[in-house]
Amino acid sequence: MKKLLALLLAGAMAFSMAACSSSGSPSSTGGSGESTAAEGESQASGQLIVGSITDLNADFMDGWTNGTPNKSVKNLLYGYATATFTQDGSYAVDPVVVKDGKAEITENEDGSKTYTYTLNENLTYNDGSPITAKDYVFAVLLGSSPAFGELDANNTVGADFVGFDAFNSGESKVFTGVRLLGDYQFSVTLDAESLPNYYELALTAVAPYPMDVLAPGVDILDDGEGAYFTDNFSVDLIRDPITNTETGYRYNPKKTSGPYQFESFDPGTKQAVLTVNPNYLGAYDGAKPSIQTLILKSVTDATQMDELAAGSVDLISGVSGGTAINAGLDLVDEGKASYADYMRAGYGKITFACDFGPTQFPAVRQAIAYLLDRNEFASQYSGGYARVVNGYYGLSQWEYRENREALESELNPYTYNPEKAKELLIADGWTKNESGGDFVEGVDTLRYKEVDGELMPLTIKWANTPNNPVSDLLNTMLPSEMEKVGMKLEPTTMEFGNLQNYMLRNGEEATYHMFNLAAGFATVNAIWYYYSSDPAYMGIYNQNFIVDEELEKLSQELRATEPGDEEAWSAKWLEFQKRWNELLPDIPLYSDNYHDFFTTRLQNYTPDGLWSWEYAILRANLEG
What we know:
- The chain contains 20 helices and 25 strands.
- By secondary structure, it is an alpha+beta fold.
- The strands form 6 sheets. Strands 1, 11, 12, 13, 14, 15, 16, 17, 20, 21, 22 and 23 form a 12-stranded mixed beta sheet that branches.
- α10 runs antiparallel to α14 and α18 (549-559) runs antiparallel to α19 (566-583).
């Protein structure tokens, strides 16, 4: 069973080298974690074209939510975090980054805990300029600053550190829980209120940002009470370096520290080009890329396998749906492709806005679930390569496997039942017609409910994307069923980026009640952020805009699990799933058996549900 192992703390750290490919081995790093490779050297060659049915957008800097392909690009561009996700499913201090592969941990009298990191002194950006402790401290201060928030960015990076509230609000210019201790040493202190935390080590993981690029002329000082910016730091100073649509770091991050560096992005074709960072010292296990150039391009569900067969695409990751998977397996049978398959750490879903309109009421969300035959949906869509799930989980998660019997017996499966849907709506007050009289079946077509003294129609505005077989199937199965119970579905088709903006309310008013898309669970699945009632997390982590005291309490109890106590975590996780299943902020549609299809020239490529293509590609190679 692949579980999140006990978080690896300094004195008891067990550093794993398992499952490494020939591109990286324990001997790649010395005892101090310092690479012996000469700077500027690269043995990489060749080009790999990666196709995605989800379009890239122009965001390549953390702070603005974007889709899965952008997340993959950022994982390739930004490196040298102090703690890192490993292939065995754990988090560990990175010995390439941190001296001796250890953090110094101090438990303070007030219940807080300080992690002190001493950096190796040979880290550089892709341009060869040195990375020091100031670059790490800058990343935390920038991502927590009110100025960054004024750019409509998520500025909650240091939310778990002592002094965050005062710094984030602008009350104090000093971030007391972040210390600059020397050229190659800094510390972060977790607030007592954030402890215990199951993902404690991951919370302290910091990666560098180039201060000279994002905040030119600014310095960071520390007089013993915490780190702070010099007085010339302001939103006006960082606005152009970050948000200029031509040169801003958000759109054009040229100075980075990961295995690859940014070359270009074409907003017209939505194609990005990355090349190997010649100064990259390696991942935690010493792995370095052997493929010189990665090109990320958009493909359609209908033509992606034709492109793979023709060689205009070399890798398609996370292929879902029976039609596409069977077409890919045909290519494998013909010797034109190879494949890897794995269970998904996520699900396809209908997402609800839970704070306005009809979908603010759990009964409406439950009724929609009863109106959709999800087993038939999953069968038609996946061709047998998926299963229905009934909670906030995917089939690859260890918690699911450990609690499978309880999940199947204790969660409501919302089996197709129009009569049950109607009962729920009537009990919830959807008993009026448009004139305010009683709704009469066979006469009236749309139910209404009196809400705050006004009649609310049971009309569900649905945002979906084009050329999407999930949207097509929902559009076939749902509208007629909804009409039977006095509900109306109003679909609007738009590009995925626009759908995201409406769902997360990035410059858009709350308009749509329902969205269909997919979710992959993060390696650190910090559920307590996603269901927090804190306004700062709405539209960033809490994408349903749901506020439920019990759900939030259960998520916070998960957070407070001692690191490594998997038994307690698993039990609390199950209780969370029960409440989530009752509230139904999403309708899970399916969790798949994902397939990656790729050119036969690609060797040693081993993805899984959490080890996605951008991690696996770093350890793969091209033949021929």
